[in-house]
Amino acid sequence: MTSVTTSRRTFIGGMSAVALSGSAAFAQKKYDNGATDAEIKIGHAGPYSGPASAYGVIGKTIEAYWKSVNDAGGINGRKVNFITLDDGYNPAKTVEVVRQLVEQEKVLCLFNTLGTPSNTAIQKYMNQKKVPQLYVATGASKWGKPKEFPWTMGYQPDYHTEGAIYAKHMLANVKDAKVGILMQNDDFGKDYVEGFKDGLGKDNAKMIVKLATYEVTDPTVDSQVIQLKDSGANVFLNISTPKFAAQAIRKAADIGWKPAHYLTNVSASIAAVMKPAGYENSQGIITAYYLIDPLDKQFVDLPEVKTWTAWMDKYMAQANKGDANYVYGYTVSYLMHETLKKCGDTLTHENVMKQATNFQKFRVPMLLPGITVSTSPTDFYPIQSVQLATFKNEGWALFGNVMSAEGS
To answer: How far is 377 from 3, CA to CA, in rounded Å?
Structure first.
């Protein structure tokens, strides 16, 4: 196999002296590739470079999380060997590095690989290999299809449902709506648009007056935003990743366009999007939220927020706590940690998936109050609830109730 030039970070610890439980669940050890008495090997690919590099902090957060787990003795006496590779948000590169992780590194599972196009490129391969592709960092609805892809599972609320929620809110609150959509030209963008159209209903489909697409290789989306304004749209559905989301917010302000603005949750980071776009340009933007903002005064005194803040101070001291991606990386790692703990000494591909599909209203710290994780062998959508929020001053202000919807 050809060599792969990527960044690689790995944490490997020796065998822990912690005694294993003597219970029946731990009585007989069974391992697949990536697991031994000493370690659990987990693979990850993410965009440390390229057009979506703002998401690179997620991988760094996951690294720090597993380091903290290892510092505390590991999982059931085993240290976590986390191998993360840079795919540059390029699906062809994702295929290359994931083959390396599965065939050379022989990881037990792939965890939180980022991006809809990237995960799409490896989904069939992972399912053919029968290696878990768990808690992927994308909300595309295709990750919740256990009949077709029993080894792939999502994590966050799915884009289709989120798009439908924006449409319902718009119908109830915007008079004579004319919708302009900025869409990344791939499955990520298409999933949101389809959900938004479903939320509108056939009778209201004509409300969409302009659909402007962009490629991830484009330098800017300035021309697309100008086209949307010129269409007469008074609603802006901004389906973009952080770099382009910030550009679009700033450009809309520059040209004096002030529509009702809906921003996808994946670009709701204050540090990566709202601040670079300009707080003054971001006022009133609406998004769907499911993570706690640790800087929100209503949450700062919660024990889980204090725990997270102390963890950040110890393991990611230089990080900007206003970047929601750090919260995201922590929460998804917590769920993966719990999944592996439940496996006990049966660290096989099959048992990892069995445990991942067996959560009932499980509370993950730093999810919004009222939002929990539930899965089953027929339900691969761990988080199915969100709460709307509007950008006010320098942060997100939640409003309304927690809304739940089936991901399918």
So the answer is: 38
